[in-house]
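Hey, can you fold this one?
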Amino acid sequence: MEVALWTDVSRTLAGRPVQAWYFLQVPAGRLAGVAARLARLEEARLVLSTIGTYNLVVCVWMRDLTEVARLEAQIEDGLEGVRTVDRCVTLRTVKRSGNRLDARGGRIPPRTG
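Sure. Predicted structure:
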């Protein structure tokens, strides 16, 4: 059994305010290897396999919007047979891990009383 520890931080305070998601099609025989390689990217926050039109989803945090297209090209050029089916940018996260967040991504303390 493996245990992973997770410390959550504000994207803005971490210097990576842009969150993007890539929805990829990867040949089935290469899925595990591609996922492992993408998980090692400095920008990667989450890599998971799924079933449907795309079979790999990658969430990344970046310094600015220009990095979204750059990383997409890097993924497709560097990983043979991998194709981006869709992508999106998260404009603002209002709740994370059960906590409401302010405009900077910081936790809003729960109301008491």
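The two ends are 41 Å apart (CA to CA). Let me know if you want another pass with a different chain boundary.
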